[in-house]
Amino acid sequence: MVDLQGLIAFCAMSLVLSAVPGPSVLFVVSRALAHGRRAALASALGNALGGYVLVIAVAFGLGTVVAQSALVFTAVKLAGAAYLVLLGVQALRAPRPERGDVSPVPGQRRVWEGVLVGVSNPKSIVFLMAVLPQFVDREAGGVIAQMLVLGLAGALLQLASDGTWGLTASAARSWFGRSPRRITQLNRTGGAAMVGLGVTVAIAGRPD
C-alpha cells in the first residue's frame, strides 16, 4: 500500500516540476503553435504515456541499463533529439493552412509521436531512478506496485500541466492566426522551437 504522505509529497514535487517550462512543456507548446489545440492535447497525452513507460522501466529495474551505460544513454538521447528535429522540420515544411487549427494528421499519430518523445528522454529515467524510490515505503512491501502508483499520479499531473500549457499556446495561435500568413508564421515558430529543442537535447551532457 502506498504511503499517503509519500504520495502527497511526490505529487506536490511532480506538480511543481511539471509546471516549470522544460523539454516536455516546450514540446507541447511547439506542437500547439505549429498544429493547434488538438495536436497539443494529443501530444501532451502521448508525452505523459511515454513518461509512464519510463516509470515502468524504472520500477522493474530496466532503467538501470540506461542510467549506468554511457553508450546506451547517448544512443537514446540522440534518437530522441533526432526525432524532435524531424518533427520540427516537418512543421517548417508544412503547406500553408487555410484557416483555424484543423490538422490533417490523425490524433492517434499525434499521440504516438508524443509517446516516442516521452520515452526517448533518458534524463527522465535518471531522474526517476534518483527520486522515485525515496517516496516508497519499503516496510509496507509491494515496492514495484508503489512505484507504479506514484508514477501514475505523476503522469496524470504532468498531463494536466502540459495540457494547460498546450491550451494556452493554442489559444494564442487562434488569436494570432486569423490569416493564413500569420498561421504559417506560427507553424514556423513551432517548428523552429522543436528543432532547437532537439539540438539542445543532443548537446546536453550526461548527468553523473
Overview of the molecule:
- α2 packs parallel to α8 and α3 crosses α7.
- This protein is 78% helix and 0% strand.
- The chain is built from 9 helices and no strands.
- The chain is an all-alpha fold.
Mean pLDDT: 76
Strand content: under 5%
Radius of gyration: 18 Å
Oligomerization state:
single chain
How would a textbook summarize the main sheet?
none
Overall 3D shape: globular
The helix/strand series, from N terminus to C terminus, equals HHHHHHHHH
* SS field, number of helical segments: 9
Helicity level: over 70%
What is the number of strand segments?
A: 0
Structural class: mainly alpha
Low-confidence stretches: 98-103
Roughly how many Å apart are the termini? Answer: 32 Å
List the helices and strands and how they pair.
Elements lengths: L3 H16 L3 H13 L1 H23 L3 H6 L1 H24 L13 H13 L2 H10 L11 H34 L3 H24 L5
Short description:
With 208 residues, this protein is an all-alpha fold. The chain contains nine helices and no strands.
Task: Please tag this protein with its features.
mainly alpha, 9 helices, 208 residues
